[in-house]
Amino acid sequence: MRFLRFVVIAAAILFPAAGHAIGKADQVLVVKGEYRLYLMQNGKVMQSFPVTFGANPKGHKQQQGDERTPEGQYSLGYKNPNSSFYKSVHISYPNARDREGASKRGVSPGGDIMIHGQPNGWGRWSPVIQLFNWTDGCIALSNKNMDIIWESVSPGIPIEIRP
Questions:
Q1: Residue 100 pLDDT exceeds 90
Q2: Most Cβ neighbours (<10 Å): which of 80, 103, 116, 140?
Q3: Rounded CA Rg of the chain
Q4: 3-state SS, one letter per residue, for 104-116
Q5: What are φ and ψ of residue 98, in 5° steps?
Q6: Domain with 150 in it: what CATH number?
Q7: Residue range 84-94: average pLDDT?
Q8: Contacts of 128 (CB under 8 A, 6+ apart)
Q9: How far is CA 47 from CA 56, 65, 98, 121, in A?
Q10: What is the pLDDT of residues 18-50, one digit of tens each?
């Protein structure tokens, strides 16, 4: 009986129920090669989530329409509860370096890069949709996981997106 109680408590700590806030993160880390988003607090992982990216996921976003997800240091901006997707949180792409690089190439760097849930009305298809890189450069999660992100992040915290 003691062992069973230990397993239940350990599972509750390691795998919080979807849709429940887990505390406030002070940083977000995204590792594209792992297809994971990590909520961080004081340098430690609070929780991680599977994510998908732009339809052309390899490499740093170079210009509008390339369907790449940016890589680098950014910050989270405004939260939009009325987005075309189930909730969205803005990422501060493009930064000065991104704008300068795009300008040198004579192209627009693009923008409107978000962390978001599924397209509105498509949430139940998330298990299938999340098998593919389908965004135009955003970071997408299931709606249940987006609820946790929504409650755990605040505008202004840093987000690092690694290859």
A1: yes
A2: 140
A3: 17
A4: HHCCCCCCCCEEE
A5: -65, -45
A6: 2.40.440.10
A7: 96
A8: none
A9: 26, 31, 29, 26
A10: 445 578 999 999 999 999 999 999 999 999 999
